[in-house]
Amino acid sequence: MSSLSIAASAPGQTNLVAVFVDPMIDGLGVSRTTISTLFMIGTIGAAFGMVFIGFSIDRYGPRAVMIPAVLTFGAFVMLMGVIPSSPGLATILALGLGFLALRLLGQGALNMLGGIMVSLWFRKKRGRASSYATGAGWLLGLGGLPLVSHWLISDFGWREAWFVLGLGVWAVMLPPALFLVRRTPESVGLLPDGEKPVEQTGERAPEASEAPAESEDNWTVKEALHTRSLYFILIASMAWSTLGAGMMFHHTSLLEERGIAEGIARSSISAIAVMNLIGNIVAGRMNDRFPNHYSLVAAQVGLLTALLMALVVDSNWMAFAYAGMLGLTQGFVLNTGTVIWANYFGRKHLGSIRGATMWAVGATSAIGPLPIGILFDLTGGYTVGIWLYITLLAPMIVAAAFAVKPIRPVGANEAGVATAP
Q1: How many CB atoms lie within 10 A of CB 204?
Q2: How many domains does the chain have?
Q3: Number of Cβ within a 10 Å radius of residue 96
């Protein structure tokens, strides 16, 4: 179910929106700077809405949030195909509102729900489970859908492509959201990792003085916001959400500017999805065995490598190699970004903590496509923008190295109140 939720979020993800950017620029008569700005505004607005969504997941459960999110998201995906063609105020408002809905409900709600459901149902094997769920979701959503969208755009038009994607969201997500999603494993008499409670196994119940074998330290939102680790994670996460998002948003245009044919440029997005799966699997093993900030550092190094490759790509095989490196990096980011919050701060307040932090990541991801889009309009190329990204990446690598697991102060309980030793 987590994989389906992540896959269905694709129409709101930068990777898939990138396939529509150039056709919509031509069809709507807007500039690259205009569409980048509207994408930024929509993403910033969606980022603040994530606080409410995260709180709602904790209070009402994933199912109660997923059903209305799927219904509304599918409708707005279809409405993207009826944006007025004349480049006037109506077009600008409709495009901005469309990006807001796609980012809030797709990239935000469905994507976050997919990650949180894995973290709620797994603990010991959280990294591995996340790698399968996230990797499969992105392979389905951003491996197959870009190719399907490219075919639909080429044969029928970008408006028709949006309509088909919206219907697909409803068809794929509504049945399982209604009948399969449950709040937590405890709500159906289970424990994380598929384990059964002691009373169901017939084993001796532990004495009151015995500590649970797998105790979980649950931090409140207030406590988490007072740790340095949270802010180091956020800064490190901005590497992909800002710089990676910018590269993905202009992916097709960048490769065409380097002399790559349009069809190859769009098809290379599938390489991103395939390598995303591999990156997810590798990161999942690392995150179950080693401190999670190791994977954060590896992700930054991968992004730096991709940026350097983008400066020299000039052939079809290099285009796929560059796309593959982006995907490998994205896999590390997605897996680590899913498990690190639960591993560091526990499951009890996970939705609220994710909602309280995702707005910052979402807001910075909105900025990513804009500067490189403006620099393209000013210079006629992407080289200057890529070097800007490389410069901005340096402090994010440092932050990843310092994003260690927080330690609760001695004598403090979950509410952060000092207790007697």
Answers
A1: 7
A2: 1
A3: 18
